[in-house]
Design a protein that fits this description.
The protein is α+β, with helices and mostly antiparallel strands. The protein is built from 13 helices and 17 strands. The chain has four domains: 172 residues, Alpha-Beta Plaits; 53 residues, Orthogonal Bundle (DNA polymerase, domain 1), CATH 1.10.150; 99 residues, DNA polymerase, Y-family, little finger domain (Dna Ligase, domain 1, 2-Layer Sandwich); 46 residues.
Length: 433
């Protein structure tokens, strides 16, 4: 913990849903749910209007519809989210060279590395207010909540206190006063299982946790977690803001619209993914020792298997052979909806092959089963030759309904077309360089 409140945590409010409301004027002020559009879908983000009905992230689409049937359920437009995130991260880097992104919508900023006259509470408060104003400006109206404190832990906690569109600054010396009344679940890593163990021990708040000795917590939760909770209950957190986090693994995975049942097809997909992993490793100067696969079955059960080599590799063919062998140990007869390959235990060197080059494997042709005809998912951007840009309101029975509006227009008209109307085109962003 620092002597100054010099670590800032910024969290964009209901980010995916907020971007959709920004770009779709007719949805502003209304419940919007990103994700959960298919029979198996889960909610990625819910707007605050939808959260009033109890809709939250990771909830099944079925439950979200039961709670808020009048919400707009959208499939998501990740190009728009990435573009908006880049603009925000650039604002943060303009403030300080030490920015640690955690995801598209949140990051830590080290204000001690910024060019500020001092780190007094009044100064950092002004900086936080100006930062929120700049985010609102560069994103076209999105809001962010900011927490500023003497550690990462406290800054993250502070950013949860005044959502949405707020800011909390924790003056140095008041950290424990803020923490003590809070439930232990505000501490990172205290999930349902850990919370239940603490509850059985009569520990509900951080004030109660603070009274427990370190030895007792270690006996209750294990060495690493017990020691960590003992420190955080006393606001002890010395983690620095790290601008470039070291990669721990490199992986590729894909989800499929139709369950995969053909073992040869799965092996072909793993082979293709493994070669992509190998290419990315070589491009970034990495090799790795542990090859793993991730398999999500038709019933959402997720399985993983791994194998560790005696020396690191960046060879896609080697990774592919191991991945296929790992798949052979799994029962996939019920169907598979996700496959992925990853390599961890990264190093910056490769053991030379002592047995000479192995022959190149033949390229495996991968032909995925045809998905249900759903070429117009709700929320995607489209362009009509006469009406101009808009987005898909809904589709079915050979008809697609479009709302013609953009972020710069008022709510626009709704029109319906045949799905095969040659004047209607799905808009795609230009490829990234």
């Amino acid at each position: 913990m620092r002597a100054t409140a010099s670590i800032l945590h910024l969290d964009l409010d209901a980010f995916f849903a907020a971007v959709e409301q920004r770009d779709k004027p007719s949805l502003r002020g209304k419940p919007v749910i990103v994700g959960g559009t298919g029979g198996r879908g889960v909610v990625s983000t819910a707007s605050y209007e939808a959260r009033k009905y109890g809709v939250g992230s990771a909830m099944s689409g079925r439950e979200a519809r039961a709670r808020c049937p009048h919400a707009a359920f959208l499939s998501g437009r990740f190009h728009a989210y990435r573009e908006t995130s880049r603009a925000v991260m650039q604002v943060l880097r303009d403030l300080s060279p030490l920015v640690e992104p955690l995801s598209l919508d949140e990051a830590f900023v080290d204000l001690a590395a910024a060019d500020l006259p001092d780190l007094e509470v009044a100064t950092v408060t002004e900086v936080g207010a100006e930062l929120r104003r700049r985010v609102h400006e560069v994103t076209g109206g999105l809001t962010a909540t900011v927490g500023i404190a003497s550690s990462k832990f406290l800054a993250k906690v502070a950013s949860e206190l005044d959502k949405p569109d707020g800011m909390t600054v924790v003056p140095p010396g008041t950290e424990l006063d803020l923490l003590r009344p809070m439930k232990v679940t505000v501490i990172p890593g205290v999930g349902p299982a850990t919370n239940e163990r603490l509850r059985r021990a009569g520990i509900h708040t951080i004030a109660e946790l603070e009274q427990v000795s370190e030895d007792e917590l270690v006996r209750l939760l294990g060495q690493a977690q017990g020691h960590g909770l003992w420190q955080l209950a006393r606001a002890q957190d010395l983690r620095p803001v790290v601008a470039e986090r070291e990669a721990k693994s490199i992986s590729v995975e894909s989800t499929y619209d139709v369950d995969l049942n053909d073992r040869k097809l799965m092996e072909g997909i793993l082979t293709r993914q493994a070669k992509e992993v190998g290419t990315r490793m070589r491009k970034n100067g990495f090799s790795g020792r542990t090859v793993s696969i991730k398999v999500r079955l038709h019933d959402f059960t997720t399985l993983s298997r791994s194998s560790t080599l005696s020396s690191p590799t960046d060879d896609g063919a080697t990774i592919a052979r191991i991945a296929r062998a790992l798949l052979g140990d799994l029962d996939t007869t019920g169907g598979v909806r996700l496959l992925g390959v990853g390599v961890s235990g990264l190093a910056d060197w490769v053991q030379e092959d002592l047995f000479g080059d192995e022959p190149e494997e033949d390229e495996v042709e991968v032909v995925l089963p045809e998905p249900p005809r759903r070429t117009w998912p709700p929320g995607v951007d489209v362009v009509h030759d006469e009406m101009g840009p808009g987005w898909v309101w809904g589709s079915g029975s050979g008809v697609v309904t479009v709302r013609f509006e953009t972020a710069e227009t008022p709510p626009g008209p709704v029109r319906s077309f045949r799905m095969d109307d040659p004047a209607l085109h799905r808009w795609e962003p230009p490829p990234e360089e």
